[in-house]
Amino acid sequence: MNGEDAWELGVGRWEIYFGLVLICTVIYVLAGDGSWPKGAVAAVLLAAMVPWYAAFGRRAIGADRQGATALVYVAGLVALSAGAAAATPESALVLFALCPQCYMMLNWRTAIVAVVLLNIVPAARFLVGSTGAGAIVSFALWTVVVITFSAFFGLWVERIINQSIERRELIRQLEATRAELATVSREAGVMAERERMAAEIHDTLAQGFTSILMLLQAAEPRLADDPGGARRQIGLAVRTARENLAEARALVSAVPPAALGEASLDEAVRRLADRLGEELDVDTECVVSGEPRRLDARSEVVLLRAAQEGLANVRKHAKADAVAITLDYGAAAVRLEVRDDGTGFDPETASGFGLRGMRERAAQVDGTLDVRSVPGVGTSITVEVPAS
Description:
The chain is of the alpha+beta class. It has 11 helices and 5 strands; from the N terminus they run H-H-H-H-H-H-H-H-H-E-H-E-E-H-E-E.
C-alpha cells in the first residue's frame, strides 16, 4: 500500500469525476441562452478552479484535515463558484463535484458550513427570480433534501477516512512490533548459538585440555623413577591432544562430534571408558544392553556429551576407584548411566555449567536427566532420550 490510506487510493477517481463535471458545466454554460459575456465570465471562473485545485486542492487532500491549506482551498472554491453562479445560474451544476470535496478536506461540521456557503448564491438567485409560493416551497424542500443527503454522505466519508487513518496507524504499530520481534528473535538466536557453542567447548575442548594437563602433571614426577610410565602418560596426552584437535575441527566445520565419526555410539562410549581407565588407572566397566542401533543424530550427541561430562566429573572431582557406564537400548528409549564410587556431592547445591548443559541438551530432544549423589558414597548420572 506504500503508506497510503485506503481512501487516498480513490483520489484519482474523484479527480476524474471533478474534471468531467467541470467540463460538462462549462459546456452547459457556454451553450446556454444567457448573454455571451456573462457566460464567458462564468466559464473563466469555472476554468480557474483547475489551477486552484492544482495549487491547493491536491496538497489539502494529502494533508491533515481542517488544515490551513484545506481552508484556503475551500474558501477559493466558494468565491469562484459564487462568482460563476452570479454570472449564470447554469454554473450551479459544478456543485455536484465541489460539495464532496468539502467532506474530503474538512471535518464534518465545517464541511456542512462550506456546503451551505456554496449553495447561497445559487439559492439567492433562484429566490429572486422565482414567482409564486409553490415554486419557493418546492425549492426549499428540495434544498433541505439535498443538504440532508449531503450531510449523511459527508458523515459516511468522514468515518471512512477516520477508519483508514486508524488502520494506517495500526499497520505502522504492527510493522514496528514485527521489527522489534525480529530483532529480539535474532538476538535470542545469537544467544542460543553462543550457549550451544559454550556447551560444546566445555564438553570437548575444555575437558580435553584438563585431561592433557592432568596427564602431563602426572608424568613429570615419573620421568626419573619410571620413564616407561611417564612415556605412557605423555602418549595419552598426545592422543588426547589429537582428539581435541579433531573436536575443534568438527566444531568449526559444524559436523557431528569427532568421537562418533564413523563409529557407533556404543563404540564411542567404550573408548571414553577405556581412556579414563588408562588415564586414572582405575577400574572401568562399560556394559551395553539391548540391540545397539543408530539413533537420531541429536540424540546420539546428547548421550555422547553426557558420557563425556560424567567421566570428566569423575576425572576432576570424584577420586573414584571404580567407574561403570551402562548404555541400555530399549524399545522406547535409550538410557545412559555413569556411576562411580567417589566422593560424591550434594545435587541440591550443585550449580556447575556441566550439569546445567546436560539438562538443557536432554530437554532439547525431549529427554531427561537424573542426578543422584551422596557425599562420600558416589554419584550416578542418568540420561534417557526417546529411541525415535
